[in-house]
Amino acid sequence: MDLLQLKYFQVVAKHQHLTRAATELNITQPALSKMIAKLEKVLGYQLFDRRERQIQLNSLGEAYLRTVENVFLELKMGEAELAYLADHQNKVLSISVTIPSLLPDLLGDFLVRYPGTRFRQHQASFEKMVQQLEAGEIDLGISTKPVAKENIEWIPILEEEILLTVPLSHPLANRKAVYLKEVEKDPFVVMPTGYDFRTMTEHFCHLAGFSPDFAFEGDETGITQELVERGLGVAFYPTVLINDRVRKMKTAKLKIIEPRCTRTVGLIRAKNRKQTNITMKFSQFVIEYLKNRQKDQDE
């Protein structure tokens, strides 16, 4: 097993289509197919389900993809570490997020522009993030909740509509929009306690006048939506901060008529702390990155 195999696997997982992945990698489709088969043989597990000419990441592949993405993220961060040691510049940035799925692309793109940057990253609940900021443990936070504190600055960037996803076999699947109350008896697929998306799920359901039945938990958006795809429940679905792999899952995505289901994503930072040059650059980059994501979704 080598990094080239892992890269090939990552690209195939992104497209879930061998021909398109081979085109991006500039190799032949048979060669790519053999490379994926060789990786599966080394691991001892099938990472994809194959049906005729279709190839789809299975649950083992989903788990392995998260590991591979972390490997490449660590490598990129390692390159940033070397750059720092080489020129002795203090370019360390400590951040905390409530949406961990943002990090691979966001940090990867930022490191392309500013390759000398080092990151210390944290995944935290909103409350923990505020504590980290006040204690000086982090420079910035990317949050899905506004902050109303004198010593903390809240910079809203985008408002994201939240949809409801149901299995294609669900009685409501052919509808374009629903009232949330209509699924009060359905099992909900949620993230574990402590995740802000779990808190958001509870809040929206309470606004609709019911307490959700939490049947299954998944610690990542992709797993949550895969459980919906397999008919195990319904779930909320962010329209902007979602990757292409999850977007292509075979579920019905329904607008919610009532209550109004949105979340605001923004930056939080300490007002009384001097912002370093790299912190200011990252703040502006995050704003541009998120606004571009929303623009792409609107188009």
Automatic annotation (TrEMBL):
Q: Which domain of life is it from?
A: Bacteria
Keyword Transcription regulation set for record = yes
| Family stated for the protein in its record | Belongs to the LysR transcriptional regulatory family.
Which segments constitute the HTH lysR-type domain? 1-58
Instruction: Give a GO molecular function annotation for the protein.
Output: DNA binding
PROSITE patterns per record? HTH_LYSR
User: What is the recorded name of this protein?
Assistant: HTH lysR-type domain-containing protein
Organism equals Lederbergia galactosidilytica
Q: Where does it sit, as one GO cellular component term?
A: cytosol
* Keyword Electron transport assigned: no
What sections of the sequence does the record tag as coiled-coil?
none
Keywords in alphabetical order, please.
Answer: DNA-binding, Transcription, Transcription regulation
